[in-house]
Amino acid sequence: MSADITASARTPEPPGRPATRRGMRASLGRAWPALAVYATVRAAGIGCVAVGAWRTGKHPRTQLGHYWDSIWYVGIAQHGYGTSRPSVTHPGLSFSDLAFFPLYPALIRAVTSVVPLSAVTAGLLITWVTAGLAAWGIHAVGERLYGRRAALMLVALWGLLPHAVVESMGYTESLLTALAAWSLYALLTRLWLWAGALALCAGATRPNGIAVAAAVCACAAAEVWRRRGRVSWRVWAGAALSPLGWLGYIGWVGVRRGTWHGYLDVQDRWGTSFDLGASGFRSARGLIMGGGSPPHYMSLIVVGASLVSLVCLALRPPPLPLVVYTLVLVFIALTGSNYFASKPRFLLPAFPLLLPAALAMARARPRTAVLVGGALAGLSCLYGAYLLTMADSPA
Prior knowledge:
2% strand; mainly alpha; 19 helices; two-stranded antiparallel sheet; globular
């Protein structure tokens, strides 16, 4: 990594609006190779899902856009909130659609109101567009910090993760990652209002979207401390905006249920709470001792690799916004008592965890990088098809 890249990444110039527009157009031009690679690997993944679905008598669109959590999002988009169902697989639990944050179903409803598409098709369209925006944002962050080659590898790795099929499903991980990546980029370029507004939207997308607001607030606090309070009003406004999406929805659920801990009650009925990782540790120990399904073993591998990557990241930490964002995401994913097989999906937006591997591949010989990428592509495509056509739950 060259010294000039590092310096420019850590002390960015605060561009004005015209410079920002020119910079965005230039960034998109430089990102095209990475976006082409990402689109190719995800198209291959969707193709494998389609083949697997047809061979098992299922419809690819249903498996991608109306399966498990996607059913809830489509239902909210079509009918609003208010649906609750008893759990078939977990007696005593009752699932409420209030567990799902509103931005993604609101976007589905908005698209279907102006374009003659079904809610399922609209949801997939939104997912695929936001996945592309996420890949672009990841490239912009990676390029600013470590150069174009490392940025290309970062985008490719994000698209080649074992659970990358979720990036093409009617889920919210792609939308959250797009909002997070561009909010982090805005922080790196000192665009405080953009950072806060994107963090607000991220907080209205998923519960772990609060990680983006945490990054904005931490950077704003550091800026205030560094300048001894002599900062632009934009710093304060960005920090104030950032948690409003998350707090707004949590508050609305509390009012609807008549108690301040209404959202916690909803999550508890889904079997989700914070136990500081005790249930995850028990699941991992049980898998190590023997006895588990392939998705659980893959989840164990992904969680283990994420922890190793976190240690590597700590040895050469990126700028503050990426550190705070990643730590909060990992903490939420690993300390919750949610389903162990879902933890890799919750870690998908934590793309900074891929930086150590991306830097290693950027330094490697092209032939080595191609071989590693090819092996990961095969694993990602086949495992994604397995999750959506053979496994009990996609994630």
